[in-house]
């Protein structure tokens, strides 16, 4: 029996974190469609008896760009390009009732958060000098990083290096890192700017020229060794760094920390196709993420949480995150016979990091937000998104293709391009109240709602 009135509202804040192209936008679009036009047979919230009632979209919090659901759905249907980006982070807020929650309705806040920003996490609580030391030691101790950054590491040995020389050689180093599939780039605006636009593929020099390492062109900075930090350029970089940290890093991290649950997306086909460097960096991203967030109940317990809410600056408070869903998206790009292996790879990649956290519930989900292929015996059928050279093409006829076999465990080393999982055009019904076919997206939501 439906209760006559609801006694209270449960707010649930869910952050969706993943690298550029991991599938955050598609996941959100499909999820919102399934909530708004709920069909318990196609999207089970725990059981197929659970119904969603009185769904309504609410305005999002001040200071946030609203996730443009309708535009995204439309561009998925019409194979158009994504709506113009205006921000690097979006929010979508809605309210609904669940037939199995008798006395409460749910306000669900979904946050679309770029994983690239995690690379800046080292700035939190660090002065410019500390961040410089930390970053330089990272660049110098990892051989592939050191090789890509050589001209910059030489530039910082010159006692009279100019601001332009420093910024340009650092940008060239960051461009080289991107081109060798190392996405842990800081300041992360070089890779993904404030408006959410990503560095486009180009040669290193072009890439370095077209991007900014800081808030804007007049506020760039690089890490510097102690001697150079005393120069006028060093003093200027402190100012640029502080402003960047306040505007980009603290914003991002306080949003993350205010979440109750996270959906962490690790795109297994992309990691296999991208080579071992991309795998290493994504694992590092998850490590850093947990390091700064400290999810799970800490030993101090709830009362201290309430106190710390009052007394600590926002960016230093403990997080509220108690549930983390590790999601391997785009499962439909993997042959059904290999999908258990994708789940195994996901567990092998982050299982330990997650298990080390006390009081944090976590689960692993192989998932497809928009199932866009049909399986055949050994192959898949779908509309190819790219031609043989990797260029995006207009949607044509369905084709049969054979993705790589997923290995039984992560190889000890592998090169970019050794594995290939051809991308396809997403299949979304034109009828707006008919959400796309999904795999396990309903289980992900059931889990994060707790
Ligand atoms: N086949 C398939 N492709 C997907 C799925 N989810 C995302 N993609 C593709 O992955 C690409 C990046 O997705 P997007 O949501 O824009 O990634 P974001 O940068 O994390 O927001 C797009 O080209 C999508 O078509 C899925 O469930 N199935
Ligand atoms: Mg996106």
CATH architectural type of the largest domain = 3-Layer(aba) Sandwich
Low-confidence stretches: 297-303
Kindly state the percentage of residues in helix: 25-40%
Shape: globular
- How large, in whole angstroms, is the Cα Rg? 23 Å
Strands, total number: 11
Estimate what percentage of residues fall within beta strands.
Answer: 5-15%
Mean pLDDT across all residues, rounded?
Answer: 90
Q: Give the SSE order as H and E letters.
A: EHEEHEEHHHHHHHEHHHEHEEEEH
CATH topology of the largest domain: Rossmann fold
**CATH 4th-level superfamily of the largest domain:** P-loop containing nucleotide triphosphate hydrolases
Separation, N- and C-terminal Cα atoms? 23 Å
Describe the structure.
- The protein folds into 2 domains: 8-117 and 254-449, P-loop containing nucleotide triphosphate hydrolases (Rossmann fold, 3-Layer(aba) Sandwich); 119-250, no CATH class.
- It has helices spanning 24-36, 69-77, 128-141, 143-148, 150-155, 163-179, 204-210, 226-229, 232-257, 268-274, 276-293, 301-311, 339-355, 441-449; strands spanning 8-18, 52-58, 65-66, 90-98, 104-114, 261-265, 323-328, 361-366, 374-375, 380-382, 399-401.
- With 450 residues, the protein is an alpha/beta fold.
- The longest helix is centred in the middle third of the chain and has 26 residues, at 232-257.
- Strands 1, 2, 3, 4, 5, 6, 7 and 8 form an 8-stranded mixed beta sheet that branches.
- The protein is globular, with a radius of gyration of 23 Å.
- Helix content is 36%, strand content 14%.
- Residues 24-25 line the site of magnesium ion.
